[in-house]
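Model the whole thing, not chain by chain.
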Amino acid sequence: MIEQFLDGFSHFSDPLVGLGLVIGALLGYFIGALPGLGPTLGVALLIPFTYGIDPVVSIVALVALYVAAEYGGAITAIMINSPGTAAAVATSWDGYPMTKRGEAGKALNISIICSGIGITLSATFLALTAVPLSEFALTFGPTEYFALGLVGLSLVSSLSTQSPLKGAIAMCLGLALSTIGLDAQTGLPRFAFIPDLFEGLPLVPVLLGLYAISEVLMMIEGGFGDHAKSEPVKGLFAVPFATFWKMRFLILRSAVIGYVIGILPGAGASIGSFVSYAEAKRASKHPETFGRGNPEGIAASETANNAAVSGALAPLLALGIPGSPTTAILIGALMIQGIQPGPLLFSKNPEIPYTIFASLWVGVPIMVFIGLAGAKAWARVADVPRPIVAGVVAGVCVIGAYSSSNSLFPVGVTLIFGIVGYLLRKGGVPLAPIILALVLGDMMESNFRRALVISKGDWAVFLEHPISLVLVTLATLSFVAPRLPGIMGRIRGRRPGPAPGQGG
Amino acid sequence: MINRMNAPVARRGGGWTGKVAAIAALTLCVVFGGPAQAEDAKDFPSKPIEFFVQSGPGSASDIFARSLAKAAEPLFGQPVVVIDKSGGSSAVQMAAVKAAKPDGYTIGVNTISHFTKMLTTLKGSFSKDDYSWIALLQMDPHVIMVRESSPYKSIEDLVAAVKMMPDSQVTVGGYGSMGSTASIAMQMFADVAGIKINWVGYKATPEALSSLLGEHVDVAIANPGVVQQFAEAGRVRVLAILGDKEIDSFPGVPTAEGAGYAFDASWQQMRGVYGPAEIPDDIQKKMGDVFIKAVKDPEFQEYMKNSGLIEATKGPEEYKAFVGKIEAIAEKGLAASGVTN
């Protein structure tokens, strides 16, 4: 095993492999930073160029791009409140308030360092546990995935403590929107009056609309006033080491959460970052500071969403089963090279997994350097007059939406959801539950239906399978727990009268 | 060249300028159009060919398109540019191909799903007469498999055991909803074997395989490429091949027909090349010849071997005839799996 690791590292003595790594990381950084383009599209765009290049060089470049693009989403989330990927949504909750306080540079520094730590830790987990944990992930069937989705949805409860009712409305809206498209079991169209909608609402344009375009509308309305001048970032390591040392347990926990959730196909970076954020908030002594510019929120989200990359690679390397949409494309990239990922990859092409492990470790310092240098530059961008920012954001979003599938359909989706997002924000309805439900809805529904087909209509399966039972219980508790004090209080207060029908 | 540029102006033109443009275009057509067309077939292609793919980069069709383009470029003497037209469950690509100028410079990958979709969700929007069927190049049969730990050692074991079950029904996982290529293949086999299936559709073949390995479904159906490594690693046992030939990477596994089931082996995943209707016959013929020759390219053969694909070549005339047959089978298969048109 040691020998194979050394062999993996030895590939980096080849200047071409090193070059592939740097090019991949740079491309990923910029692609991730452009709203609308993300790791999936980035890897897809690079594949044609890897054609005819040595398999090791191309896989190194693609993995570097994947990792860097997963990070790049944080930049726009922090700078302009428009997460380019669902995985960066949780980063924006504390990142953007910090930017508004003039701490954009600090927020970016924290995000890139935590991303780097997340990758380093999770790559180590990956090298040690890819095979056994991927085998464990096989025990997750339709019932377990549905139950896992329930746990994810239950986060809405802790993420929207200010107005549970509005949080619930947003969640239901998200779930309803996720039913658009071809029915996964029967293949019949639902609410899909044009073929463009057959594959469901495209997530990225919806994100761009809800967050970025609505932010532009808010800026226009607000008269561009509420923005502190940003503090210049001094040196690359402007944030002292002590800040990260204080968060060491939070970071470790987030890396584990991100990695484990990343392994499960169908979950992935976005769920990982939501769960990790909710857990950080729960564990914090000052949960009320979350969402108002608490660096711990950025650390939790960014560590987890980058750790999820290693997680998603685990079933790919161990079994040839993709753990995320991006890794599904990576499988295609390997197949073009004549390498068939599957359970024999470690014995037939050991250079591939071990080079990937090595490239994750070697790539981190490069990515962090690019990120820190970038943070200095971006922090200055924060002082660009708001009207200009508003115009640029709107333009970039439209272009990003267009380039996500080279058509006008996603542009329309972006603009419509921009107006929807603006109206919801005016009404005080939180946007996060919509995204959470939109990400989870499809996975939950298709697995719910599969579970019932397999059980031939017996609903008890969700409680009979042990893992599913644990998850359903966890979801129920997590739904109810934040409301519990209120419910108990009401029951006590109205003891003589009839018990209230519902809490919250 | 000139008439091609002017034509859209003429169509859009409404007023006086439009009419002048139309007349000008018409004149140019008369002057240059005739000889240009005659030359086209001989000199074809004189510029790059655009090759539209209906599914995203890294998908089986994308790999097919890129491998084919690479092998065909030197034969055409022009680049073949692969363009991602994914979305709308193939509808985006089908619309783009249908709307293209029928000059052979815009073509697309077609699979058997193009036919099932024209009979179901996209019925009315597209039909087989909207297209020129240029060449069929490969077939990709389905295989039926169980876990290695399963008590069923052969397809006869499986069928006999299912018949003993109270509802004669077995739970099968595979790619796509009811009415997908894989589900129709399974349904057609179940019909000839006299059993029933409980279909569990997955969004991707690897998902269906992991459901089989994780003991959530009893049987899975997939194309050989993905299954090869799992069979070699001793994780799954392939019981039958729903095609007309045995496959080297599954030694000793019979075809359905070889095992005594009257399965119509023409129902397989297939990949070919199609274009908009009314591409001139001689251009179609030329393109078909080039693609069939490209399939013989050693690198293309290597890709087919690695992915467990089977060469099956038909030129435009044969393919057109075959399309009629495929549509008939698709109709039958869709009806059998309970999907109404």
